[in-house]
Amino acid sequence: MTMIAKDGAALETKDPLWILNEYRAAEVHGAGAIMRMARLADSTELSADLSRHLRDEATHAWLWTRAIKEMGGEIVEVEQAYQTRLATYFGIPRSLTEFLAMTWASERRGVLQYTEHLGSPELTGLIQRTLRGILKDEHWHVRYINDELQRRVRADRSVQDIMDRALIADERAIGDMTAAETAAPESATWPPKKP
Ligand SMILES: [Fe+2]
Ligand SMILES: [Fe+2]
């Protein structure tokens, strides 16, 4: 999961309900991606990990949904700008390893985003508790996928190139979004425009 805001300044100027809707949409997207990838799992261990991961992402989507409702907010569909760009730069995954690498890059980005938000000064108790709870799971997501990819690197060193490619796609996606936000900061207004 990852979202649009990616620096402290953006977090402070955006409506919290907008950010939570981005988080919610990213978690829903993540659950869908894990569900598709789980069909390709080639070991019982990976199947079990992906099942637990799917449970987590669905739970996270619900936790953000509940937080938005508790804050009196509206659930809206928001653009998945990061995910779309990541997929464009990485290309359509053609193997389980490529799926894992793209997910790994996206999960790392999600941890960075949530960690940064947790460090921002004006957090409500509700958002802070939700971020803390979710981050524990997100750290595990990065760890188990990294372990799985390292096993694959030991068997086939070209897997490292796929991981590098995923990180480059992530950097390019974030670079685009930073440029877009600098060019048009008003795009971060509430409520979002319907696509
Ligand atoms: Fe998540
Ligand atoms: Fe995750």
Q: What fraction strand?
A: under 5%
Largest sheet: number of strands, sense, barrel closure = none
The quaternary organization reads as single chain
Bound ions, cofactors and other small molecules, one mention each? fe (ii) ion
Please, how many domains? Answer: 1
Q: What's the helical proportion of residues?
A: over 70%
What distance separates the N and C termini?
20 Å
CATH homologous superfamily, by name? Answer: Ferritin, core subunit, four-helix bundle
In the CATH scheme, the class would be: Mainly Alpha
Number of strands: 0
What is the helix/strand order? HHHHHHH
Q: How many helical stretches?
A: 7
CATH architecture: Up-down Bundle
Mean of residue pLDDT values = 90
CATH level 3 topology: Ferritin
Structural class: mainly alpha
Rg from C-alpha positions? 17 Å
Q: Which spans have pLDDT < 50 for at least 5 consecutive residues?
A: 1-9, 189-195
Could you please describe the fold and organization of this structure?
The structure is a single chain. This protein starts with 7 loop residues before the first helix and ends in a 12-residue tail after the last helix. The protein has helices at residues 8-13, 16-38, 44-70, 81-90, 96-118, 125-155, 159-183. Helix 2 (16-38) packs antiparallel against helix 3 (44-70) and helix 5 (96-118) packs antiparallel against helix 6. The protein contains seven helices and no strands. 74% of the residues lie in helices and 0% in strands. It has a single domain (2-182), classed as Ferritin. The model is unreliable at 1-9 and 189-195 (pLDDT under 50). With 195 residues, the protein is mainly α. Bound molecules: fe (ii) ion (FE2) (2 copies). One fe (ii) ion (FE2) binds at residues 1, 30, 57, 107, 110, 138, 141.
